[in-house]
Design a protein that fits this description.
globular, mainly beta, 79 residues, single chain
Length: 79
């Protein structure tokens, strides 16, 4: 399975829940774990991570609204 957003097949078009402005996709939430995380090969998450408890076939992306400086997270279904 793979994330269509991470692989450039789809793009996220999500409105901010606070002000309804367009948000910017800042990438996978798990990429924030280290300075080189976005450049490392994507590995399976540990069995008991939050990601697997929520849904084994999903990819969480961080969204940012520049209008109200809010961040949020959205779950993308993997193919």
């Amino acid at each position: 399975m793979f994330c269509p957003v991470c692989n450039g097949i789809q793009s996220l078009h999500v409105s901010c829940s606070s002000c309804a402005s367009a948000t910017v996709d800042c990438g996978r939430s798990s990429d924030l774990t280290g300075p080189y995380a976005p450049y490392e090969q994507i590995k399976d998450e540990p069995l008991f991570s939050d990601m697997h408890l929520f849904d084994a076939s999903s990819c969480k992306h961080l969204l940012y609204c520049s209008t109200c400086n809010q961040t949020s997270e959205v779950t993308v279904n993997e193919w």
